[in-house]
Amino acid sequence: MKAEYKVELYTGIRPTGDLTIANYIGAVKPLVELQKQGAKSLVFVADMHSLTDNEPAVANKFCREVVADYLALGLDPNKTNIYIQSSIAYQVSYMTMLLARHTSVSELLRVPTLKDKLKNTEHPETANALLFLYPVMMAADILLQRAKSVPVGEDQLAHMEVVRRLARDFNARYGDVFPIPAVQQVKSLRILSLKGTGKMSKSVPGGAIFLTDDLAKVAKKIKSAETATEGVMTDSLQSHITLAKELCGDPAVHLNIDSIISEHLEGKQVMGVFKDLLATIVVDFLRQFQTRRAEIVKDPSYIDSILKEGASVALANAESTLDLVRSSMK
User: A single Gene Ontology molecular function, please (predicted)?
Assistant: First the structure.
């Protein structure tokens, strides 16, 4: 009997703080666009994953906040089920344990994202073990839900190879249990810090635009953002152009942006005009988002009902998969 998929599209969100405009462009917008194409999705808030580098209180604080953000950004609960990862903590932990038997420490040390994190922050001898198991827990999440496709950015491709390898190895030993999830790489758009160095990040709030920022504060941040001298195209300016076009889909506005940039490359002093336009686009987007979000959080039972329904779907899928796993291993 061929292993069957249960979920068409599956992805997770780490609840580690307020979202930035870059988080929207890189993670939420692609999911909303896939949803518009008719994909039935299952999304989970990865509070267990966030324990690799955060205290439980941080994850608990932001779980519901990030759900409200995603709903306000366009995630449709009629097309997408949402659940908190820890609502099926037993199933995730049990599957992680089973899959860990098929993973070596040396393989985990070769995962590029882990190597980068260790190089930048700590050494293997002092890193917490949960950090090493991150790809294995990711595999547990995906395989429990029997996901057909997983949209990921470039930084998660190595993790997905671990997931797919674990599924194949488990099937080779115990039978056709797991359907192999496909990797759906989403467009990688790198939005840089307004300060001009590195990507936009929560860790450098002065260079980031948060979805919850005061609108006057946002306009001020953009006015002081690094751009480029006349006639020069820089990474910072290109990032700002991408930001403007991703937030505003109006072709007329895009043509206006292109016209301003053409004048800039001809040596004209138009960066003030460009910043004014960028500020208008960002503030308009945030004003609409914040209005929708305020409506969503008025009734706490609304998010409760969405998470309850999502947990019911996730639990049914996970228990069904574990039944297959247990019977195959006898």
Answer: ATP binding
CA distance 70 to 34: 14
Q: Are residues 184 and 44 in the same domain?
A: yes
104 three-state secondary structure? coil
DSSP letter string, 246-290: HH---HHHHHHHHHHHHHHHTT---HHHHHHHHHHHHHHHHHHHH
Global pTM reads 0.90
Residue 196 lies in a domain: no
In the chain, the number of structural domains is 2
**202: in domain:** no
Is 177 among the domain residues? Answer: yes
| Terminal C-alpha separation, the chain | 17
pLDDT tens sequence across 20-79 = 999 999 889 988 988 888 878 899 999 998 888 788 888 888 899 999 999 999 999 999
Pair (261, 316) in one structural domain = no
Q: Buried b / exposed e across 113-134, counting CB within 10 Å, b at 16+? A: ebeebbeeeeeeeebeeebbbb
Residues annotated as catalytic (active site), given as ranges: 117, 199, 202
Question: Looking at the structure, do residues 310 and 286 belong to the same domain, yes or no?
Answer: no
From the list 151, 148, 201, the residue with the least C-alpha distance to 33 is 151
Q: How does pLDDT run across 200-243, given as a tens digit for each residue? A: 988 788 899 999 999 999 999 999 998 889 999 999 999 999 99
CA–centroid distance for 328 within its chain:
33
Domain of 38 in residue numbering reads as 7-190+300-329
Q: The tokens of 80 are what?
A: 């997408």
Is residue 50 in a domain? yes
